[in-house]
């Protein structure tokens, strides 16, 4: 896919105020600091589109971006930040769950996983919840440039094994780096196939 345009559309704090669901949409989510903003900017080749290093746990916004006038990228607030209070965590869950379960044009949830880490409970819990809801999702491993290919492969394998304890198969997965652009073509091709399917 060639990216011709990518623009910020709107920020929302309420599911009821989301943009009209006229285009297919892909939601990006993961732990705070997983590299979500960097990945979105890398995919659309536009530095600064999604704001990096936001203060976690502050305003929880759903940000919409329009790509090629054909599809939406949705930047969801990160989860699993240790310093977030219980009430803030509950608010996050309610908000995100409402969005994910009600959004009719949502094609796929892109779950970001830090490729440097061994499987984390917070990610597995979220994935299991997606599965319980029957929501389609893929895994995007981030920051692959930070360690050797062997180490990344090892963590991916551990994650797969962890998933196979609960699931019969693992979803499609991508290994990416916002630093060197790896995985970009694969993720965009995946979106392209769904959009044109
Ligand atoms: P977010 O909180 O999930 O949106 O994460 P950010 O995109 O703000 O990234 C968090 C930190 O990780 C920043 O310092 C980024 O520069 C860094 N980072 C994100 N992606 C990558 C990557 O692919 N490679 C490397 N080396 N650093 C990354």
From TrEMBL:
KW Metal-binding (keyword) present: yes
InterPro entries membership: G_ENGB_dom, GTP-bd, GTP-bd_ribosome_bio_YsxC, P-loop_NTPase
Any one GO molecular function term: GTP binding
Names of required cofactors: Mg(2+)
Every EngB-type G domain range: 22-197
GO biological process: division septum assembly
A matching Pfam family: MMR_HSR1
Source taxon at top rank: Bacteria
Coiled-coil boundaries: none
Keywords: Cell cycle, Cell division, GTP-binding, Magnesium, Metal-binding, Nucleotide-binding, Septation
NCBIfam families tied to this protein: GTPase_YsxC (TIGR03598)
Family that this chain belongs to: Belongs to the TRAFAC class TrmE-Era-EngA-EngB-Septin-like GTPase superfamily. EngB GTPase family.
Function per UniProt: Necessary for normal cell division and for the maintenance of normal septation.
Protein name: Probable GTP-binding protein EngB
Organism expressing this protein natively: Solitalea koreensis
